[in-house]
Fold Glycine--tRNA ligase beta subunit.
Amino acid sequence: MATQNFLIELGTEELPPTALRTLAEAFASQFEAQLKDADLSHQGVTWYASPRRLALKVAALSDRQPDKVVEKRGPAVSAAFDADGNPTKAAMGWARGNGIDVSEAERLKTDKGEWLLYRQHVPGQAIDALLPVLADNALNKLPIPKPMRWGDKDTQFIRPVKTLVMLYGETLIEGTILGVASDRVIRGHRFMGEPNLTLAHADHYPERLEREGKVMADYEKRKALIIKDAKAAADAVGGMAELDEDLVEEVTSLVEWPVVLTASFENKYLKVPSEALVYTMKGDQKYFPVYDANGELLPKFIFVSNIESKDPTQVISGNEKVVRPRLADAEFFFDTDRKRPLIDRLPELDSAVFQKQLGTIKDKTDRITALAGQIAERIGADKAHTERAGQLAKCDLMTSMVFEFTETQGVMGMHYARHDGEPEAVALALNEQYWPRFAGDKLPTTPVSSAVAMADKMDTIVGIFGIGQAPKGSDPFALRRAALGVLRIIVENGYQLDLVDLIRDAKAQYDDRLTHKEVETEVLDFMLGRFRSWYQDMGYSVDIIQAVLARRPTKPADFDSRVKAVSHFRSLDEAEALAAANKRVGNILAKYDGELPSTVDSSLLQEDAEKALADVVAEKVAAVKPLFADSDYQGALTELAQLRTPVDTFFDNVMVMADDPALKANRLAMLHLIREQFLNVADISVLQK
C-alpha cells in the first residue's frame, strides 16, 4: 500500500488568540481519531497554527483503507431450519439482508453450538473519498462555544473561512469543507512576502510559507523564537524580562512573523507601584515588563511586532506613544487616591452590593473583621492587627486605581495602607487576603494575612451555600477554589483549626440572612470533598483518600497526617493482608446483632491462637495509645502492622462464630478492638491491592 504525506490547511480570519493552541491541538487529536476509526495507517500528525490558519500534516498516510473480511453471524442452526431441513423465516430474512441464499452460508461451530455465518469481503476505500469527510468530522468536534455564520452561508465556524488546501503528496484532494472548495493556494502575511502561494506538494509546507509568505506556521518554533529574542533584548538593557507563560502563549497566537523590540517610558512613572504599571503593560498592551537583578521594574518594556519594519524606530515610537497615556492615568489615579486615607472609604462600601441576599460589601467587611478576629485567637495572630486588616480589606475597591485597573485590587490596598502608616502586617494582609488565587499559588506569609484570607473565603462559601446556590456545574463565586485555598492555608501552615468551628462561626456572622437549613452539613461535605481532588493531584491513590474520608476527620491538618500515614502503611508488606482482615472483620460485625462486651475476657480464651492474639492486641493497644494522643498516625499504623501474623493465625485456627454465645461474643469483642485501633486513623478495609 502506497503512502504520502497529507496536508490540510484552513485559512481563516483572525482566530481568538487565547483559544488558538486549544483549537489546533483539538483539531489534531480529533483528526487522528478519525483516521484511527477509518483504519488508515500513518506515522503521526503534526499541527500548525497562526492567527489566520489551522493546519495539519499527516506523515506517511496510506493511500487507501485495507480490505477487510466482516463476519456476520446468523441464527443458530437449530433455529435456522425446520424439522424437514427447510430454511426458517429467520434464516431467510438474515440471508436476504446479506444478499445471499441460505445455502451459501457457512457454519460456525463453537462449544456453545453452531450458527450460520456469512463472511463478507469489504474492499477498502481510496483516500481521496475519505479525507474530506474525516476532516469535516474533526472540525465539527472542535471546542467552539460560540460559532458564527458569515455572508449568506449556513455553515458555522469560530471565524469566517477563506481558503482550504488539501494535498495528498502532489495530488489535490477535491472537496468542500465549511463552504469552501479545496485548492492549492495558501495566503501569506498581510503586509509582507507573497500574498498568495500555490503549493505543488504537501511536503512544501510550511517551509515555502515561511520563506516566501513570511508566515511562521510552526507555533512552537514561533514561541521559542519570541522567548529567546525577548531574553536577549532584556539582557541587552541589563534586565530580565517577565515572560509569563499565559502572556507568551497569547502573544505567540497574535503574530505570524514575530519581531521582538525594546521600548522605554519615562522614569517618573516608576514612583507608581509597579503592579499597576505592569498590569496595563501586560493586560492592555501585551508587553513584557523588564526588571533589574533586584526585582525592581526598569523603565523598559519588550513587545512583539507582527511586521519586519524597515525603520523599527517608528514602530518603537508608536508603541511608546500608545502606552504613555495609560501610564499617565495610573500616575494620576495613584496621586489622587493617596489624598484620602484608606479607612475613609469604608462607609462607601455600603453602596456596593456583594450579593443581593447577602448584603453589601460593607456587610461582608464587617463579617470578615469579626470572623478573622476569632481565627486570629486560634492561630496565635495579633487580633488587633487582624481586625484592622479586616476593616480595610475591601476599601481599595473604592479607589480610582482599582476601579480602572481591577486586577490591582489587594496590592493597591497594601500600598495605600503603607502610605497611611498602617502596621506592615496589616498592609500585607490587604494584598495576601486573596492568596492563593489559583492551584499551586503562593500562600499568605503571616498569621494575620492567613486569618483574613480564611475569613474572606469562609464568608463567601458559607454565604452562597446558605442561600441555596451551591455550585453544580459552573462555579461563578469560585467556591471550589476558595475551599481549597482554606484547606491549603490550614494544612501547609499546620494550623490546628476545625472546619466545624470555622463553618459555625462564619454562619453566625450572617444572623438570619441565610435561608438554607442544612448549610453547615453541606459546606462541611463540600470542603471535605475538595481533599479528594487535591490529594489526587499530589499523586495519592483514590482508595487512600477514601480510607481517610470514611472517618470524616474535620481538622485539615489532622486529615493530612492521616493520608500520609495510610500512604506509608500501604507500602508495608503487611498492608494487603491487614486490609483484607479489616474488611472481613467489618463484614462479620455487621451481621452480628448481639451486644458486644466492652472488654476481652481472658478467662474465655481457649485456643492458643486466640490467646496469642489477645496478648499482642493488649500490647499494641497500650503502645499506640500515646501515639494517637500525639497524632502520630504513621507510628501507630506501623505498630499495628505487627498484628498481621497473629491475626492470620487466628483466622486460620479459630472459629469466630462459635456455638457458645459467650465465646463468640468474646472473640468478636477482640476483633472489634483490633478494628477500632485502625479506625482511629482510617478505614483501611477500603484499600485496594
User: Anything to note?
Assistant: The mean pLDDT is 94. The chain has 25 helices and 18 strands.
